Amino acid sequence: MNTRRDFFQKLLGAGLGMYSLQIPETLRLLQSESLKSPGRKIIATWNNQKAVEAAWKVLSQNGSALDAVEAGARVPEADPEDTSVGYGGFPDRDGEVTLDACIMDHLGRSGSVMFVRNIKHVVSLARRVMEKTPHVYLAGEGAERFAESEGFPKENLLTEKARKAWEEWLIKAEYKPKINAERHDTIGILAQDHLKNLSGACTTSGMAFKMKGRVGDSPIIGSGLFVDNEVGAATGTGLGEAVNRKVGAFSIVEMIRQGMHPQKACRKAIERLCSIQDYGEFQVGYIALDHKGQIGAYSLRKGFQYIVVEEGKIKLFDSDYHFH
Ligand code: SD4
Fold first, then answer.
1. Which domain holds residue 273?
2. Does residue 3 form part of some domain?
3. Alpha-carbon span 69 to 192, nearest angstrom
4. CB neighbours of 260 closer than 8 A, spacing ≥ 6?
5. Which of 133, 163, 181, 287 would be a feasible disulfide site paired with 297, CB 3.0-4.6 Å?
């Protein structure tokens, strides 16, 4: 991930704050189609280019925002190189990969799974919880059994690379829940479709080498993700403990409801994190998309990037941040 990021920075000049990414041929064809019906938009955390391409493919064919965010989130879930989502995610301190995910649609429905083992596409499992059960949250063994009953394959999610990283960590085995130093590419993705409907999804393997059973913000409705179709949507990445304490995504949507631009709402929500002192120099990044299609992003520290698709064009941005 860092390598790809470095590549774009070198290629397009660091400091510009925005990079246009190359659009594959399939998307270029879909782009002309989408221009007939403007309004479709996607925003996602980090340089998740392949994810937003998959999501845009859905939107450009008049698919729903819900299908788009699910399609997008599934991409890093299947990518063994992405060490903070799905297959290839770094394990907990006992060497076991446990995943968290949630999804919300334009009807205000939500589904979430947490502490799930051996199931790669937890975002799709969260969607099944939303659509096929009377519940919002399913955790651990219960979620795994539900996955089995829904025909999700059971897979070993620990790659050789992740196992090696865990073994290296074991030498010192320091438990320091401090996320800035760690690479993190957790995906939070928001979309607005041709009907102006909003949806969002978030999926992660959580903090590397976490305590067994630890759950961050990513599967928590209101913290890691919130969508209100009349108002807007927000999601985030970074130290889940901090986001959970301030109920990040919900607070951003509530500020947008009161008339704030998503950019200002993200900044205000980040400022609320500044009172948290007991985690040292942690990182949090928020993104938001309101019902008018306006976007916002802000992070606590330098280094957070987000990616936007508008009218078929993919752009990567360096987020503004609080601590200079
Ligand atoms: C968590 N927010 O579990 C997630 C971690 C994350 O990139 O965003 N990593 O706390």
1. 39-321
2. no
3. 9
4. 268
5. 287
Residue to substitute in 186, 279, 301 for testing ligand 1 pocket (most ligand atoms within 8 angstroms of CB): 186
- Which CATH number goes with the domain that contains 271? 3.60.20.30
Structurally, how many domains does the chain consist of? 1
Residue 230 forms part of a structural domain = yes
Ligand 1 centroid–CA 22 distance in Å is 28
Ligand 1 centroid–CA 117 distance in Å is 17
Structure tokens at 234: 């927000």
How many angstroms separate the CA atoms of 44 and 56, rounded? Answer: 12
Which of the residues 45, 159, 186, 237 is marked catalytic? 186
| 6 within a domain of the structure (yes/no) | no
* Cβ of residue 210 lying under 6 Å from some atom of ligand 1: no
pTM of the model: 0.91
| Separation of alpha carbons 216 and 213, rounded Å | 10
- Would residue 133 show up in a list of annotated catalytic residues for this protein? no
pLDDT tens, the chain, 324 aa long: 333 333 333 333 333 466 666 555 445 444 444 444 468 999 999 999 999 999 999 999 999 999 999 999 999 999 999 999 999 999 999 999 999 999 999 999 999 999 999 999 999 999 999 999 999 999 999 999 999 999 999 999 999 999 999 999 999 988 776 554 445 678 999 999 999 999 999 999 999 999 999 999 999 999 999 999 999 999 999 999 999 999 999 999 999 999 999 999 999 999 999 999 888 888 999 999 999 999 999 999 999 999 999 999 999 999 999 999
219 lines ligand 1 (CB under 6 A): no
Contact (CB, 8 A) for 97 and 205: yes
Report the alpha-carbon angle 113-115-119, nearest 5. 75
Specify if 172 maps to a domain: yes
Does residue 238 have its Cβ closer than 6 Å to ligand 1?
yes
